[in-house]
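Note to self: keep these together.
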Amino acid sequence: MSRKPRSSEPGLIYHIIARGNRKAPLFLHPADWQKYLDLLEMTRERFPFNLHAYCLMSNHIHLLLETNESPLGDIFQMLHSKYAIYFNHKYQYTGHLFEGRFKSLPIKDNRQYLDVSAYIHLNPVEAKIVHYAQDYKWSSYRSLIFKQKNPHIFKEQLLSHFPHPKEISYQRYVEKIAWLNANKKANIK
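Structure:
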């Protein structure tokens, strides 16, 4: 039985999640993380899109991606097949690298857009990899709050939701969500 085609409308923003097969690592060496970002750029040249936020974890990825004219399926078929070929060749693996199809959750409004961006950037904190989101190298967060150049993201739209100084306001927003998450967990215990 064939799968239903994924719906993808131009101009929509999606929270994209892709996981390693059997939750296995997608990245084993810093060069792997960089290769994924390089392939992301190569894919963008062929199928233009705007990337608003990202976080590459060891066994999964989160992207906040806005489509232009190209369907999501075309974007991720190219990106993930090229990355899987690279990874399998480098580590002499065979078989699927990614667990099934990537998830694409459409963003419905500005609140969800901002909340998902914070969720993406707080992933390494929630996973207890770092204490603070800005300490994680493989996300777009540092470039958003420290005005660092990052050719991978289109940060103007995300920062446009915050008052001046935009970077500090966004950092406060993310830190507030981190604090709320920590308190919620403390109250559950």
